[in-house]
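Why does residue order matter? Because the sequence determines the fold. Keep that principle in mind as you read this record.
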Amino acid sequence: MIRAYKFLLRPTVRQEQALSEMLRDHCALYNGALQERRDAWRHVSKTTVTYGMQSAQLKEIRAFGPERQGRWSFSSQQATLRRLDKAFAAFFRRVRSGDTPGYPRFRGVSWFDTVDFPRDGDGCRWDSTPHDPVTRVRFQGVGHVRVNQHRAVTGHIKTVSVKREGRKWFVVLSAEQDRPEPLPSTGSVAGIDLGVANFLADSNGVFVPNPRHGRKAAAKLEAAQQALSRFPRCKAKDRTAGHQRAVEKVADLHGKVRRQRLDHAHKTALGLVREHDFIAHEDLKIRNMSMAPAPKPDPEQPGSFLPNGASAKAGLNSSIADAGWGVFLTILHAKAESAGREVIAVDPRNTSRTCPECGHVAAENRPTQEKFHCVSCGHHAHADTVGALNVLRAGLVRRHAKPA
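Structure:
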């Protein structure tokens, strides 16, 4: 299995400058390759430029600018071109499926924050000084950078990436390792129901409160964004010191909220994996759930629209985004795989409207957000607990169903 590790880098001032220049030059390579593809399609009879064609030009590009592109690893530049190729592949896939295409865009220096090295030892070297008590990673054109390694790395290092987040630099490793020993069996199974009022409710009646990190930081973030809005929009190189501080303040607040969400998701997922052998959850289409409602034209007044609940839906969408369901489910599946647990996604339809006692399905069974009252048998329970019970039952049915 593949496992990722992320460590904080401690570069010197010169190394930090070299890392910034590496990002700048890879960003220029990405934008130049994108411009070539656009021009070939628009002006040269819709000619398609492929990754192989652009990769073959790298030698000439490196020879033409040895003080810039020639300084960096050849394989890392190929990885940047593959990154653009994947963006175009995703664009054409969305076009074929009828989704919003989203044509690849040019990247500003502040938007391009990662450089990938496809193989350890080719342009980079993890733990380049094994006899030194301090772990270091070596990047071509940068040197041996000190690493704050807070845990051991096991397995064979496959890829290495350097990433910038605000003013901090990180190294991200992907290591191939043997499947770890599964956790001891507990004999417990659970279904979980994700929500907004409570982050999670399980079939055993346990509730995990929603921390609402984004809402708690909303006042500070609003003040920081208002301070930033007082400066005119300009390129990063033209920003004043005050403008740069305002930009970093907003970024720091967003980064803190993101880290809080990740920490909560990791701890909640780890608790579930340790306690249960089998976990079922709803197969939520989060993107569809957070879409804005369609406008309602007024048939009596052309050009006018009827109320469509857009304001209330916007608040719900903000709460869904703040909860971070997608990140949590991704982490849950990854931890379950490492621990030898089983996680199954089930159809979410009518899970909160079906009575777990008699099986009656009706919208009237849920009179409020929290209450469940079956109109057929009179069963009372918390609506989220009922949903988790129905999710668990559907998951167990799917678990024991014979494959087609």
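The longest strand covers residues 156-165.
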